[in-house]
Amino acid sequence: MDFLGRSAERATVDNLLSQARAGLSGAVIVRGEAGIGKTALLEYARGRADASGFRVVSSVGVECETQFAFAGLHQLCAPLLDRMGALPEPQQAALGVAFGQQSGAVPDRFLIGLATLNLLAEAAEEGPLLCLVDDAQWLDEASAQVLTFVARRVAAEPMALVFALRDPTERDVRGFDGIPVVRLGGIDEADARELLAAADYVPLDDGMREHVVAEAHGNPLALLELARSAPAAWVAGGFEPVPGITHRIEDTFRRRADSLPAPTQLLLLVAAADPTGEVALLWRAAAHLGIAGESAAPAEAAGLLEIDTRVRFRHPLVRSAVLRSAAPLERRRAHDALATAIDPDVDPDRHAWHRAQAVLGTDEDAAAGLVRSAGRARARGGLAAAAAFMGHAARLTPDPATRASRALEAAQDKHEAGADASELLTVASAGPLDTLQQARLELLRARIAFHLARDADGPRMLLEAAKSLAPLDPVLSRETYLRALEAAIVTGDFRRGRGIPEVTEAALAAPAATGSPRPADLLLDGLVTTFTQGYSAGVPGLRRALAAFGGQEPDGDALSVADTCRWGWLASRTAMSVFDDEMLHAVSIRHVRLTHETGALAALPDALLGQSVIQVLSGEFDRAAEHAAIAAATEAVPLLHAQLLLSAWRGRPDETAGMRASIVRKAAEQTHSTEDALTQYAMAVLHNGLGDYSAAHAAAARAIDTEAVRFNNLAHSELVEAACRSGRPESAADALEQLTSRALASGTPWGLGLAAHSRALTSTGTAAEEHFREAIEQLNRCRITTHLARTHLVYGEWLRREGRRQDAREQLRTAHGMLLDMGAEAFAARAARELRATGEHPRKRSAQPADSLTAHEMHIARLVATGATSREVATELFLSPRTIDAHLRNIFRKMGVTSRRQLRELSLS
C-alpha cells in the first residue's frame, strides 16, 4: 500500500529500526481509529525488519482474552523462552510463575518487568530484535503494564518496540503515557480514489465512488468495505446511517457474514469465540457441532477468514462483528463446543472460561471451575484476571451466601488491581454474609473510599471496620487501626477535632497483640500512646518499634519483613518524628534492601523516599539525586516528593516549582496534611536559602498549620528562622516551644541541636552565643550535616552583626565550604555574600572529575566502584546489563579512566 502515502510515518519506523541496528533502543505507539492503517504500518515495520536481519516477535491483543493474566506477554515472549536460563534466578522464577510454568510466590510486577526486559535484551544480543504488539488496547492488564514498563526502560539494546493502539476504544487504556506516538489520520481523496481503483471489486460509477469516498472519511478499510457493499447499498437507496466509522466497518462485515450458509456462520462464531487461533481446536469444536471442513470455504472466499497454520480474521472488527451479531443461544453453543474440545488437564483456565460462557442462568460446577482459575491467576500475580474469573463465578453461583462470598473476594482482587470494584461490592453486600465477611466488606469499602477521595471520611470508615473486626480477627483489626491512623496522618482535620485525635482515642480499644508483637503492633501502640498521652510518653514505645523495623530486635528479620515492606514509610517518618537520624538511616536502608530481596518492588518508591530524606539532610545530595533514575521507572509521587526536597535544598527555584507542579498533577490535587506539609516545608527551605524570608515564613506556617505537625518536626526550625529574619520572632514562639519540648523528650543530638539553633536565633548577647555553640556541638554528633552547616552560617551572620568580623569569617568560611561541597547552592551563595561583607573573598568549588557525570551516571559509577557487576547494577536500576555497559563507556570517557579497577580507585563516596 505504498501509494497510500504515510511517508512521515514510514520514516519514523525506518528511523526506529535504524537506531535499533546501531544499539539505541526505542519504542513508539501507532494510534488511530479502526481500519486507519495501524496494522499495515506494523506490517511495513515487519517487512523492513526482515529485510534488515532483525528477529521479529509479535503479540496481538484480543478482546475476549483480556481476563487471561500475562497472555499477551507470553505470546510475545514464547519464542524466546529458551533464553530464560541466562536470567538471574529470581527473574526466571518470576516469569515462570507468571506464565504458569511453575509454582512459587506471587511475583512482583516490577520484577516481571525487569525479567522481561532482560529476556528481550538477551535475545537482542544475537541480533537486532523487533517487538510488534497489535491491538494493544485489548492486552490483558498485566501484560500491558509489563510491556509499557519495558518500553520506557530500553536504552542501549539493538531492539525496537512498536505498539498499535485503537483510538478511541471502549476500554479504559492506562499506562501508555510517556511513549512517543505516531497518530494516523485519514488518507487524502487522491489516495482514496487510487485505492478504490486498485481494488478488485465491482466497478463503481462516479456517483457511487464519490459517495464511498465521502462516507469513508479517509479510512482505508472503510473505503474497501464500503466499496464492496456499495452497489447493493446504492440500489437500496444509499448507505444506512450507522454512527462512527468503526461501527460502519463492523456493520459491513456483519452483513457479509450474515449472507453466508448457516454452518459457515456457526464456524465463524466458533473461530471468533476462540482467541488462540489454534486450527486443531477449531476443527475439534466444529466436529462436535457437526460442521464439515468445507464450511470454511465461503468465509475464506468472502475475505473474512483465513485458515492455514493459524486461524486469522481479516481484521479484528470481523471477530467483534461476528460475536456481537450472534444470538445468545448460538454463542453458548459455540462456547460449549470449545469447552468440549479443550482438555481441562492441559488448559484448565480456557476450559473453565468457555464452559462458563456456555451457561444459561447459574451453574455451581462451572462457577467452581472459575474459582479455581481465579486462584491460579492470583498465584501468577494476575489480580485483574483473578477478579474477572471470580466475578463471573459469583454471577453463576446459585447459592446466595456463596455468591456474596465470591463477589467479596472478586472485589478485593479488583481493588488490589487498581480497578473500580463498586459493582462487585454491591453484589456482595446483598448477602447473606457472616459477621466476619461483613466486617471485611466494610474494610474494603473503607479502603476504596479512602483511595478514591482521600478525605476525612476515610479514617472514620477504616475505624468502623477496625471496631467490627476486633472480636472476629484481632490481627486484622489491629492492622486496620494502623491503617486508620495512617489515613488520619495523611488527611486529618485537627481544627474540627477529627483525624488523629478521633482515631487514636478509638484505637485505645484495639485488641491486644497476640503472642510476640509484630513491628506493626509496636508501631500502633507507640503512636497511640504518643497521640493520647503526649510526645514524651510515646517516645520509648516508638523507639522499640523502630528497633524492630530496623532489624535490631531479637528475630527481627524473621518477624518484620512483611511489616517493613508495608509500613516502612511510616516507620521512617516516625524516626524523623523522634529526631532519630541513626534509626532513620537503618530503617530506610533495610526497607530498600528488603523490597529488592523479596521482589516487593511496588513498595520501592516509599522506601526510597525515606532513604532520600536522610541523604538530603545528611548533605549527600548527589546520592539522593541518583534515585531520580528509579523515579523514571516507577513514576511515583513519593519519589517526586524526594526530588522536590532535593531541589529545594539545592536552591533551584525553577526546578522546585516544576517538581511541585508535577506532584499536584499526579496526585490529582488530593495531597493532604502530611504530603502537603512536606511540600510546604520544602518551599520554606528554598525561600530561606534564597533569603526570601516572607515567603519562607508563609510556607513554613502552612506546613505547621496542619495535623501533620503532630507527626512532623521538619518545619519548626524553618519557621523560627524565617520569622526572626523577617522581623516577627513572636510568630514563631509556639513552634520554638514545641520544638524544644520534643527535642528534650527525644534526647538525640539532632533534636537538641536543632532546638539550640532555633533558641539562638531568638536570643541575644551571651545567651545567643551559648546556644549557637551548643547547636554546633550537638549537630556534630549526628548525621544532619545540612543543619550543622546552616548553624555555622547563622552563627557567622550573628557574629558579623555583632561587629566580630574575624570570628564571623571563621564560621562563615566553614559554612560556605560545607554548603558548597554538598551542593546547597542558595545557602552557599548566602554564606558567600556574608563572607564578602566581612572583606573576604569566598573560595570557588574546585572541579572534580565526577562533576561531568549526570546523577544517573554517578549512581552507576558508585555502584560499580563497590564491585557490583553490570547485571547487579542493572537489577537495581531496572535496566539491562547492556545499557549499564553503555553508560559505563560514557563514564570512563568523562572520568578519564579505562577500567573498573581505575574507577574503584577514585573517591566517589
Can you describe this structure?
- The chain has 909 residues and is mainly α.
- Helix content is 66%, strand content 4%.
- It has 46 helices and 7 strands.
- The chain has a 5-stranded parallel beta sheet with strand order 2-3-4-1-5, with helices on both faces. It has a two-stranded antiparallel ribbon with strand order 6-7.
- Strand 3, helix 6 and strand 4 form a beta-alpha-beta unit.
- Helix 11 packs across helix 14, helix 38 packs antiparallel against helix 39 and helix 39 runs antiparallel to helix 40.
- The longest helix is centred in the middle third of the chain and has 22 residues.
- The protein is globular and about 105 Å long.
- The relative contact order is 0.05.
- It comes from Arthrobacter zhaoxinii.
- Keywords: ATP-binding, Nucleotide-binding.
- This is AAA family ATPase.
Q: What's the N-to-C terminus distance?
A: 58 Å
What is the percent of helical residues?
55-70%
Specify the number of helices.
Answer: 46
Strand order across the biggest sheet?
2-3-4-1-5
Estimated share of beta-strand residues? under 5%
Main β-sheet description: 5 strands, parallel
Low-confidence stretches: 232-243, 554-559
Shape: globular
Mean pLDDT: 84
Number of strands: 7
Gyration radius, rounded:
32 Å
By secondary-structure content and strand pairing, the structural class works out as: mainly alpha
